[in-house]
Amino acid sequence: MTRENETGRYPLEPSAAEMRQLVEAVLARLVEHVETLPEQPAASTEGGAALARALSGPLPETGRPLEEVLDLLFARAVPCSFNTAGPGYLAYIPGGGLFHAAVARLLADTVNRYIGVFAAAPALSQLEADVVRWLAGVVGFPASARGMLTSGGSLANFTAVVTARRERLPEQFLAGTLYVSDQTHHSVGKAALLAGFPAAAVRAVPSDARCRIRLDALAAMVAADRAAGRQPFFVVGNGGTTNTGAVDPLPELADFAAREGLWFHVDAAYGGFFALTERGRATLAGMERADSVILDPHKGMFLPYGTGALVVRDGTALYRAHSFSADYLPPSQEEADLVDFHLISPELSRPNRGLGLWLPLQVLGIAPFREALDEKLTLARWLADELAATPPFELVTEPELSLFAFRLHPPGVEGEALDALNRELLARVNARNRVHLTPTILDCGYVLRACVLSFRTHRDRVEAGLADLRAEAAALLAR
Ligand SMILES: Cc1ncc(COP(=O)(O)O)c(C=O)c1O
Fold first, then answer.
1. 233: phi then psi, degrees, rounded to nearest 5
2. Distance 446 CA to ligand 1 centre (A)
3. Domain coordinates of the chain in residue numbers?
4. In CATH, which superfamily holds the domain spanning 369-477?
5. Residues 283-292 pLDDT 10s
């Protein structure tokens, strides 16, 4: 590059003053954005497709002022969205947006050290290995465990399936069958497909009235598959389902998996970090007996999107599934106490995800996370109790952790009419824009869900949501 800017520098290499200006300009917008999160609508996507088309443009040959770009982002693109970082977001599984983690990412991206191989940044690799070791500790795994940070739960589930396939099946693995409950997150089925299994290899086991996997049905399906010459090898327990927050009977599943020689995988993407609390640990008992567990720091540790995790009890299994060598790579690290992540995970080059968790934990410690998670358990329980005490609201499932399903169920209203009533209730509550809830479909029909997981959701916002639910229900019933 020959062209220099007005300060006599190459444009891709800003001066110290330019770097400060860049960060300060963005920081000013960010601070205002974060400070006003509670006042921003809980969701606002009307006209989204038109806006998306209007903002889509050609590749610019030359640049334009940063302030113009920030205007486009903060005044137009960002507001047209679910407010996933705000306190009113009780939808799906709330994400986080911890500011400390965002700062850690700026740091990690700016130093841009290579942690795909240990030799390139030994200490930074080790910090990430520490983070993974802490996560294995949250699960209750022994020191033999290893794992990695992924881009999210889906890729963590995928890596678990690939690892289990490598451990339990021969190279001709197409007779392998996997068992999930009919409530298991779809990313497990997708993982099986990506790992090369036909769609029919994934068996959906029916769940009980609490949306927990039915062990009798599981046993019958495994027996029938064996009798038909199939090779059952993988069973999933849920550490909090996405639909209703149900926690499967993990100790019984662990027993069953041990008896049948199945790889026991726990999807604790949503619920796993509640093991940091006393109540959550009791609910999730049995998770520590799994062969592999996923848990999503971008859910339960409140990180910005982009950090999931897989931990595997026997870390050597990860090496068997992922180790590769190449002449152009530096020598690999094979000492037992040090980790070379490219040997145990699918990625080589990748962002330094570890710092996003390591830095907040260094600065804040784990205590505030534990307290925040405990607060979410209390808030969900409180909201559920209040709704249960407000007929004709009914709880469809109890909050085992911080997520539950409920609906309005007036006497004599059933079937399609009941579903339609609840659809309307949801639309009205969401239109008030103080909380944002999402629905799901269970055997009983259309239900609403409340998932309290944002570190920014406190009692005042849950009270506001309850008030909106009660007011809109009263309006609907008075018609
Ligand atoms: C229980 C469960 N498992 C897996 C996933 C997939 O995680 P991700 O969206 O991070 O890929 C989710 C996402 O919400 C989930 O709730």
1. -145, -10
2. 21
3. 21-50+61-83, 105-367, 369-477
4. Aspartate Aminotransferase, domain 1 (3.90.1150.10)
5. 999 999 999 9
